[in-house]
């Protein structure tokens, strides 16, 4: 019973100090204490909160930026006839 | 030993009380908590009864690990035929009641009949009394607990109670313990009210012998580290469950304005961090190190200065997203009111949001609302409707009947705008972009909700290898799995896996937040097997625990089928299929659930369960699980 369990093994893969962009799900690193961050992978902008000094999380979208990006994406998809 | 707690059978009509031990064989089959309650329910409730009649039976229990050295072993379960849906009624709550029940000598209570006048039950160190509740009938949830403690002269007494909503037979009334620990979602409060049973008070000092105490203590330290080092636990310890609402609203996975929108834009004031600024600390349940319960004092308005606890994710949905309100004070007031009235916050918010949509569409008029301007975004109207539902006044009396009965009374096209499954309103999340979560609510045994089947980690875009290591134990699975929450493939298995897993957790009596619910790296079957052995001396493999949970889940299915459930009940309302989402990130905009793909998901879900194409457990499935001769009346 001393063998490592599956969840203990998975816990070794935890990442700290980064968060996943809630649009593209890539991991993003935010400068300590920053309050906003633009995802370098997809350009979506997020307001950042800090659970602990080394633990950022997304507080919410930068509403106008993300809405514009989403509407632009809608328009592109509509052009392609996807939506 | 941890397994020597008894069942008390209490007949409220005759006053007769009988106690029985629970054989170990029954423990191995159903463990305890929800599992054993479901067995008792299938055996003691006669088919087709009126849920509000004295024929209905209430089952209250602790889990098999309750009050042991297993962390967060705090959960209380309550069951009975649902007064809301007519199917399985079942609710689970944290706090301190279940450990106290075990210290008082009992694991399960079976409450039958109906008292002639309001009563409460007093349980202490193996003794059970039925006492007059004339002085507490009509009191709020909070005051009732205080009055009972004063009457019995012991401030450590734990009380499970209903509020005025349960007395008024609001079909989504809760039972409550503490200030905010709520057993909601299926009208168990109305069931107690129908029996003239106001409360159950417990106090116990009978030790629970831990089978291997030193090892159990050491092992629990390991579990605590595993739980508290998880990012999800740290986030919950700071923000409570509202963090979920924040993350999902950021993407557009939230139900807003009934079901018209999927994101509450510019919701900064009701985001978790904004609510945290109003909190005065965090609290936890028995044996918990996460402490996800916010403590707060209402900052302004008529309730300024009032202390309460919460709000949870569901109160954000009920008093912000669903009614389209953006005021933190409204969320706190709404949360306080459902706590003191003993109302299900989720159902209350959903019913009011539905009425708001009907009002804006002209199906309800100001005549129906007695002049109340029931538009979305009207905070005052929202709060007023909470009072009216709890007191069954005017339109509130109709809404208090729950979705289907209310739609029947209002008529016109009102049913078109209901968002429900099996007659229970859906959670405040929008599942049109998440087929796995949609399937979970469509098939849940007690109706639409997230705590019985939701593969929440499906939202995390976990690598397939991680998903496979989770979802291929303790039974092998080599089918498809996808990291994309918008996919349909492989999701039915995730739902089935989570159903059995949550059932297991509810049988053990530990909190889901200490298990694989919101965090992929939190304990599951392997850890539970060890906990059972060290604390209760019960040798059960991870597969044995899975099978016990599967057995209990099938009993729930049998109960529902006996009460008339068909395949048509495992389905979503048309809006999921016909009205595309409009907001959020590009990946969730313009999404609907595909009918044909969803039908295949249901087929696959049944197949994984060993049920036929109508959702009926196959004889060989029941035989494999040893429940082919139920009801067996062993207890």
Q: If strands are numbered along the chain, what order do they take across the biggest sheet of chain B?
A: 2-1-6-3-4-5
Total beta strand runs of chain A: 5
Label the CATH architecture of the largest domain in chain B.
Answer: 4-Layer Sandwich
End-to-end Cα distance of chain B, whole Å, is 20 Å
In short:
The complex is a heterodimer of chains A (83) and B (635). With 83 residues, chain A is α+β, with helices and mostly antiparallel strands. Chain A has 2 helices and 5 strands, in the order αβββββα.
Provide the descriptors you would attach to this structure in a database record.
heterodimer; A: 83 residues; alpha+beta; 2 helices; 29% helix; B: 635 residues; Aldehyde Ferredoxin Oxidoreductase,  A, domain 1; Aldehyde Ferredoxin Oxidoreductase Protein, subunit A, domain 2; Aldehyde Ferredoxin Oxidoreductase Protein, subunit A, domain 3; six-stranded mixed beta sheet; 24 helices; 17 strands; 39% helix
Overview of the structural elements:
The complex is a heterodimer of chains A (83) and B (635). By secondary structure, chain A is an alpha+beta fold. Helices cover 29% and strands 29% of the residues of chain A. Chain A has helices at 6-11, 63-80, and strands at residues 18-20, 27-29, 36-38, 45-52, 55-61. The termini of chain A are far apart. With 635 residues, chain B is α+β, with helices and mostly antiparallel strands. Chain B folds into 3 domains: 6-203, Aldehyde Ferredoxin Oxidoreductase,  A, domain 1 (4-Layer Sandwich), CATH 3.60.9; 237-425, Aldehyde Ferredoxin Oxidoreductase Protein, subunit A, domain 2 (Orthogonal Bundle); 435-625, Aldehyde Ferredoxin Oxidoreductase Protein, subunit A, domain 3 (Orthogonal Bundle). Chain B is built from 24 helices and 17 strands. In chain B, the strands form 4 sheets. A 6-stranded mixed β-sheet of chain B has the order 2-1-6-3-4-5, sandwiched between helices. In chain B, helix 2 packs across helix 19 and helix 19 crosses helix 21. The longest helix of chain B is centred in the C-terminal third of the chain and has 21 residues, at 542-562. The radius of gyration of chain B is 23 Å and the shape is globular. The chains are: A alpha+beta (83), B alpha+beta (635).
